[in-house]
Structures are given as structure tokens and as C-alpha cells.
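G., before I forget:
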Amino acid sequence: MSEQDMLFDESGNLSQSAPTNASNEAPSKWKILIVDDEEGVHTITKLALNRTQFAGKGLSFLSAYNVAQAKKILSSENDIAVILLDVVMETEEAGLEVAEYIRDVLNNHLIRIILRTGQPGTIPEKDIIEQYDINDYREKTELTKRKLHSTVYTALRSYRDMLALENHKIGLEKVIAATANILKQKSMASFAQGVLEQVSSLLYMNDGTMQPEIKGVLAEKDSDDVHVLAQVGDVSAQAFQSSISQEELDVIEDSDQALHYQEDNICHISKMNGVETILNITGKHEFKDVDVHLIEMFCNNMAIALDNLRLNDSLRNTQKEIVYAICGLAESRSKETGNHVRRVAYYSRLMAEEIGLSPNQCEELFYAAPLHDIGKISVPDYILNKPDRLNDEEWELMKKHTTVGENCLKCSHQPVMQAGAIIASQHHENWNGHGYPQGLSGTDIHIYGRIVALADVFDALASKRCYKEPWGEEEIVAYIHKQSGVKFDPQLVEIFERRQADFFRILQEYDDNQSYLSSV
Amino acid sequence: MSEQDMLFDESGNLSQSAPTNASNEAPSKWKILIVDDEEGVHTITKLALNRTQFAGKGLSFLSAYNVAQAKKILSSENDIAVILLDVVMETEEAGLEVAEYIRDVLNNHLIRIILRTGQPGTIPEKDIIEQYDINDYREKTELTKRKLHSTVYTALRSYRDMLALENHKIGLEKVIAATANILKQKSMASFAQGVLEQVSSLLYMNDGTMQPEIKGVLAEKDSDDVHVLAQVGDVSAQAFQSSISQEELDVIEDSDQALHYQEDNICHISKMNGVETILNITGKHEFKDVDVHLIEMFCNNMAIALDNLRLNDSLRNTQKEIVYAICGLAESRSKETGNHVRRVAYYSRLMAEEIGLSPNQCEELFYAAPLHDIGKISVPDYILNKPDRLNDEEWELMKKHTTVGENCLKCSHQPVMQAGAIIASQHHENWNGHGYPQGLSGTDIHIYGRIVALADVFDALASKRCYKEPWGEEEIVAYIHKQSGVKFDPQLVEIFERRQADFFRILQEYDDNQSYLSSV
């Protein structure tokens, strides 16, 4: 009873829970569960299979003597390869109950079930074979040492093949989930980071090694410049750049994609629209064919998704730059510089983030804010450039730039244009209701209008205009403070005062002596 | 010898090639290949297994009597489930040669190999089991009718399970390839069509039925309107719209995605950023759990990809509308209407397509052409609106709008802006070299510049301006014809003359009495 004592205490409970291997990977030995109520059968089985080896690994044995023990072991060990299962134990059909439990309750379809019977039971063999999802049915008498070896050996072979298919299936499902995951990333930085994380998890899903052991770099190569998008693990971008040989880069000249691997290094290179993307993974991991296959499929989807993301980035940048360029040109009629509209975009986004608008709204405002003065295109030159005070008639014409801008933008259904229409219309409204064109007050003024109003005035005060020199920092701060609750939303004035340093940083960063597109 | 005669002629060749089932799906009967040099074994095996049924299907038998025949059948029939394989035939190891051929040459790892031996061969059982990838090893004497049934039955069970895993694996690989396929689609129309095609091929990959039997609709629902994006098969969009119950649409209020299926109908609904996407598939096909699983994974990726595509569309439209709106406003200073820039975009794309520019270039030109007169923003009002002839000084200022526009746009690296800079700079150059600002001639003028030059003049002639009434159709055509090789590229004048009707259609479609954003 020594084997039994090792696993069970007197009450028949497991005396210590066996270490479970949560992964689907085969353990270092093939686990065989022997279920029989006769101790002799356990002993002789282990003796017979003592020296059996399959695929370079030996066997380890677990023993159960009744249904309850068998169920307990089966539910805590999910990597048993083969069960040698006695039919008649405490009941005539005890073994069949265990077989049903494995398939129907545990939903384990991998473990190979070899039914062994000492005496013909009440159910004929044909019925057992057909009604229970078992893999072999043998009489104990026919199982000589030689036959037992053959039976267990072929069962292990089946188990290994099914496990490989199952693992491959899991890998493919992970590729699909990983693709969905990276497709959701809208920025290049989060996309690149997502790709490396997904690759790591693809590679290490069945492996006991720690994920941090992976080192990965995702980079893009444009003309001659290699630019690292993201990296995982302790790898210097420089070392990576020099490790890519020219041959590796040349090999894809003829095809769109190429995957190289050797020992612990996988390199995938893809080329789309003139940009090469290089994914390099190294780690204390030997890359198997199945890994390479999964990585290849994933990288194929990644390359296409990345191309879409680049298109997206390019559309966004084009939109931004067109607005900066044209609005800058429009501002230049009144001798202002193009950087005014750009700075207003940055101050506005800063306030929007600080006041807690959603990321979507912050972005919308960022792209729409430069459109605030677009209506000035229709204001005559002589009014725009008059250094003296405007007379009443001129002032009425000047004020019309708000509604002209609104009408120009509001026909569109595009969110950025809608936001632009609101901003054009409301950026001269005052918190106290004394602004124009509508005389709206307080929160009747859209938050976009309130934000751009402060951003526009701050930048005007800090800049040189045809009718004034730039104000000093203290003067500006004092003026804005005084206008809290008058011209400006008090909450935004508070934000301005808290983030004052950032306002002046933006003012300097995009000052009027710089080309307004230089750092787009 | 009747069975043998049926399959083989006297020379031992297959007398008629058996119909192959190229798919991996199990056929209507399980195919069992008996390989044995004794006719009696064939007869008795078939007799013993005559009434064996597994998973509702009976068995069909193929017979081979030597290695050559076995190889021939195995290589033409890829859906044999089980082979009962004699070891000793024309040689001591003939059966082992067949086993090796199956695994190593045919690379068939699904077929279950049951080795049967009449006499102990020269190689011990242990070695055979370990060295050959077989699934069972039996002595003929031990295989009673009952035992043969058990052995074949459990082998069929293994085969079915592995086939299911293998088919699932193939399905998953198809999902990945299908995702890559739809990710490559850049337009909504080709994307939607691609989705339906990929779903059809996912559903029918293992099925003998014809793909045309599928009916599918991909639609989106925005607020209250259902809009069909693509459809496959004979299904009316109206019928589809009324077939979706409000309950189905309501069910996703709480979650992002939902999949319903019943008998021959699958409906997947996903919701992202306020737009519901509905994919409905019906067909003479009973949807199985595995189908549903694959469709669900595919639809998940599709929904995300569609969201990205919508974002791209929206960015593209925003860019176009901002340019129309602002350039329209700029044109309005000289009392022209916003629709001028819009029409110039359409004439230009028409000529670009006709002259054979790439789709990329056509699109680039379409988005950049409206920027041609952007430099006029800096031309003083009194010059723009002077009804009389400009004096030399005024004319020099007017001509500067080309280089001002170029300088405004050329700082950007974005392709659309680069194209805009070229167009702003060159749209007043003449084919004969007498244009401005540089006096370029012939093909030294960029094709974009040559195209927009003709488009701009055509539209100016056909429109009312502050200094002129619109010209009549004949006058316009005569003028452009006369300017071939003078102002305009002769090849473009030819295109104009060939597509004249389309030019006047565009002129009418976006005429000056329409809101310039009405049909964006």
C-alpha cells in the first residue's frame, strides 16, 4: 500500500495536492493514471511499463482505487495522457462512470481512455465500445507485458498528435484575438506596443519560461533611416539597428514580406508603400515550426493593419496641415503669422484635457480650433489692417466674421466641421453675456467656444499685432484674472492660472519666427 | 475474386479511378482500406464489419493485395479513415513500407493504421510499435469478430476527432486569411463585398453544396435608417430590412456585439461609435457550432476593421469638405462661388483617369486641385474685384497668387499638400511657354498643372464672373480647340473633346445655385 499511502490519507483525500501544470504543453514525463481496486494491478502495471519511453520522455504514474479518488485526481491534473481504467470496482459500472465524467463533466477529449476488465461485466463489449467515448477496450488476461506496452505506446502517440492539433488550434485563436487587439489601437505608439505584447504572448503561451525573457523591437525604415516604434525587454535600439544586415533588408526587394529565423531569433520584414517594417524577436526560447507559422500569420495581418494606420495618420496630418496652411495664409492678410492658429489649437487642447473633456472631444477641438477666424477671409482689407479704432459701420462688418465662418462650416456633417462652426460662431461671446454675435452667457456658450475665446485672447495679448506691441507676462496674467466671470469662464481662468507655465511654453515653442509647418 | 475484379484489371492497375472527395469532410460512409495478400482475409473482414455503424454512417471497403495497389489507392483517395494493414505480403516488411509511405510520403497523419500480422515477422512487436507511426498492432488470431469491431470502432472515433480538430484548424486559418483579405480593402464598397465573400467561403469550405446558395446582406443602421452596403445572392434589401426584428436590434443595446443563429440563418450585429452593423446570412446550409464559432471570430475582426474604415472615410471627407469650404469662402471674395473649386476637382479627376494616371494619382489630384487659387487670399480686394483691365503693377500682384499658394503648401511632406503646391504654382503655365510665373512649356509643366489649367479655364468660361457673362457651349468648345498646343496640352484637349458631355454634366450637377456642400 506504499503507493496508495503516498497519494491518499486515511479518509481517502489527497494528502497533498499534486502540482498542476496549467498549460496544455506536455510535461517532462507522460502522466498515466491507473484506476483499479486491486493493488496488485497497480504494481504489475507499473512494473510492466517501468522502462517505456515515448518521444524521449518516460512515464510517471498516478493511482486511484475507486471512483471518487479517480475523479479527484482527474479534476486537479489536466495533463494526464492515458488512463488505464478498470470497469468493475465498487460497482459493476464504476469505470464507465469515470469515463463519462472525463468526457461530459470535465469536457476532456484529449486523455486516452483504455478500459480494462477482469471479468465480463453485465454490459456486452459492443455496447460499451459504442456508448462510451473510450479509445481501447481490453481484457486484463490478454494484456501481457508486451501488449500493455503496445497499447500504452500507441495511446501516447494519439495523445501527442491530438495535443499538437489542439495547441495549434489555440495558437490560431490567439492570432485572431491578437489581430483584433492590435486593430483596436488607433495610435502608432499603442499599436507598436500591442504588436510586441501579442507576439510575446503567442510565443510563450505554452512555455514555462517567463515572458520578460523576450526581447523585441518593432521598427520602420524609410529611405535610409531606421526608426524604432516600440521595444520590449532590455535591448538597445542601436544594437538592433546594427544587427540587421543589409542582406536581410535587401531580400525583400523582390517580395512584400519575408520571415527569417534561426535558433532564438525571428525577424519579419514587410514592405508596403515604400516603408519597410521590421519586427525582430529574440529570447531564451527555441523557435519551433509552429511558432514560426503563427508569427508569420500574425505578422501578415500586422503589416496590413499598420499600413491602414499609416494612411490614417497621413490623412489626419494632411487635414491639420491644410488648415494650418490656409488659415495661416488668411491670418497673414492682417499681418498676423500662421503660428497663431497653431498655438490656439495647442492651448485649447490643454484646457480641454484639464477640464476633463473626453479624448475624442479633445481631438475634435484640437483640429477645429484653428478654424475660429476663417470668416475673416471675407472681411475687407482696409478694415483688417486699420491701425486706428474702427468706426461703428466697420465694427459691424468685422463682427460678421463669426457668422460668416459659422455658415461656411456648418453645412457639413463631419464632426470636426460642426465643431469648427460652433467655435467660429461663439469665440467672441463673453461669460457675462456682453459678447457677440448672439450675446450668449455662461454655460449657454459651448465649452469649445469658451475655451477658444480664452486661447485666442491670450495669444493676441502675447503677440505683436498691427495695432499693438506684445504685452508682458505679468500684464497678461493680471488681465486674464480680471476677466474671470466677465469675458471668461471662471473655471477656465483657474485652469489657465494653474497651467500658466505650459501656456508660455507653447507660446515659445511655436513662436512667430518659426516656419509654421517646420515641426508638423 | 469479385471484389478484386471490381477495382483492378489483370495488370493490377485501377480499372477506374474512384471518385475522390477533395474536401476534408467525412464522406457519407467511412472508407476502410483492407490491404492483405490473402483474399480470404478481405472476405472475412468485410463480413465481420458488415453491419458496423459509427456516428450514423456505415462502412465502405476498398481492397488492395500488394504494396503497389495500396499506394495507388492511398494516393488517389484522401479520405480513407482506417487501414487494416497486413505486415507480411510480397516481402517480410511490405506493410511497414505502406505505413511509412502514408506518413512520410503522403504526409497523411489522419488515417488510422491498424497493423495485422498472421505470423510473427523478423522484427519484434516492440520495435514495430516504436519505429512506425501506427495506431494499433494485432495478431490476426486475436481479432475475433467482436474484437475487430471494437478495434475499428475506436479507430473511427479517433479519426473523427482528429478530423474535427484538423477542420477547425483549417477554418481558423481561413478566418485569419479572410481578415487579411478584408483589411486590404480601402473602400467601403469593396470591403462590404469582401466580407460577404469571405463569410460564404468560410461556411462552405467543407461542404459539397454550391456557394451561390448563400444569401447575405451587410448593412449599417444609423439612428433610424438601415443602409445596405453589399449583398450576395437573390435577396431584396427591403425583405431583409423587414426581417430584422426590433428585438434583434435592441439586444445589443447592452453589449457591443451579438450573434444569433437558428437553423439556416445567422445574424451578427455589432455596434461601434453609434453605428450598428448587421450581417445576415441565410442559405440551404445548416449552421453548425463550429461555423458559428468561426463566423463569430471573423465578425469580431470585421467590426473593428469596419470601424477603422469608417474613420478613414470620415477623415478623407473632412479633408475634402474643409478645403471646399475654405477655398469656397476665399473665392467668394472675388464674387465667385464655392462650387468652382469643387467642379475643378471633378473635371481634373475625369481627365486624370482618361489620360491613364494611377488610381493613387487620380485621388491625389482630386483632393489637391481645389487648392489651386489658395494664394488669392493674399491678393488685395481692389485687384480681385476690379471690373476693368488690371494695370501692369496690379497684374504683377495678381500673378503672385501662384507662388504665394505654392509657398503656403510646399513646406508640408504630405502628398496632397505637395501636389497642391505644384498645382498652385503651375496652373497658369501655358503649353507654348508663354504662361506665368516661370514660363515653363510642354511636358516641363507637371501633368497636374496642365490638367488643372484646362479645368480652371473651362469652368471660368462657363460661369458668370464680375467681368463677364457665361459663354455658350459652342463658343467654349471652339476656344479650347483653338488653344490646343497654345495654352493647353493637345492630348488633354483631345480628352476634353471626347468627354465634352461629362464636363457639361459636372457643370450642371454642381451649379452655382446649389449649396456647395449639399451633396458631399
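Residues 333-509 of chain B form a domain with the Hypothetical protein af1432 fold (CATH 1.10.3210.10). The two ends of chain B are 79 Å apart (CA to CA).

More on Monday.
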